[in-house]
Design goal:
Keywords: ATP-binding, Cytochrome c-type biogenesis, Hydrolase, Membrane, Nucleotide-binding, Translocase, Transport. The protein is α/β, with parallel strands linked by helices and about 190 residues long. The protein is built from five helices and eight strands, in the order βββαββαααβαββ. It binds adenosine-5'-triphosphate. The site of adenosine-5'-triphosphate has 12 residues, from helix 1.
């Protein structure tokens, strides 16, 4: 994991024919994190999707060394399955089904492993989505508005997981319109294109 690297160079984003931002750059090495801030609609989610390789930049390039895991707005967990099964579905694709119990414990949901996802609260679903990221074992975490729906204790838990991931050589890119405590992270305000 220590060879992980994420570079965005001169990235521009166009959505619906409108240029949202341009000339955005960052370079993160193993253990580093960045926090992209900015008001609603400036393009933070779009930037995260570009970093994930799910959206093509209008200009510039993205270079990722290491697997990428995305925490997006939707949890993407089958609501009819139990929590362990729903997270396990994704973990199995990463060959990591065995890590699910530990990941659920890490987000404080071990006790709800056999409960259907549809019965979880908003904050619990958010933590379940985070468990999916933790279980997958990717080096590069891309977290879009990760504290949405989380209470203070869960926010602290998330910050701890991010710190642990970085200590293990992982990279974390967070987009958030509210403050997230990421000690030593670069804070990058996303500016609208002129
Ligand atoms: N598929 C799309 N087609 C056209 N425009 C889009 C599409 N997706 C997003 N947009 C527009 O792009 C702009 C940026 O959206 P984005 O979700 O990236 O912003 P954001 O900074 O993450 O906002 P928020 O803080 O509200 O989540 C918005 O004006 C949005 O309406």
């Amino acid at each position: 994991m220590s060879t992980a690297r994420l570079v965005l160079d001169g990235v521009a984003c166009r959505r619906g024919g409108r240029l949202l931002f341009d000339e955005f750059g960052l370079a993160l090495a193993a253990g580093e994190a960045a926090l992209v801030t900015g008001p609603n609609g400036v393009g933070k989610s779009s930037l995260i999707r570009i970093a994930a390789g799910l959206l093509a930049p209008a200009a510039g390039r993205v270079e990722a060394t290491g697997a990428r895991a995305l925490l997006a707005e939707a949890a993407a967990l089958d609501t009819e399955r139990t929590l362990a099964d729903a997270v396990g579905f994704w973990a199995a694709l990463d060959g990591a089904r065995g890590r699910v119990p530990e990941a659920l414990d890490a987000v404080g949901l071990g006790v709800l492993a056999e409960v259907p996802v549809r019965m979880l609260s908003t904050g619990q679903r958010r933590r379940a989505a985070l468990a999916r990221v933790v279980a997958g074992g990717a080096a590069i975490w891309l977290l879009d508005e990760p504290v949405n729906g989380l209470d203070a204790a869960s926010t602290t838990l998330l910050e701890g997981l991010v710190a642990r991931h970085r200590a293990g050589g992982g990279i974390v890119l967070v987009a958030s319109h509210v403050p997230v405590a990421l000690p030593g992270a670069r804070v990058l305000p996303l500016e609208p294109a002129a």
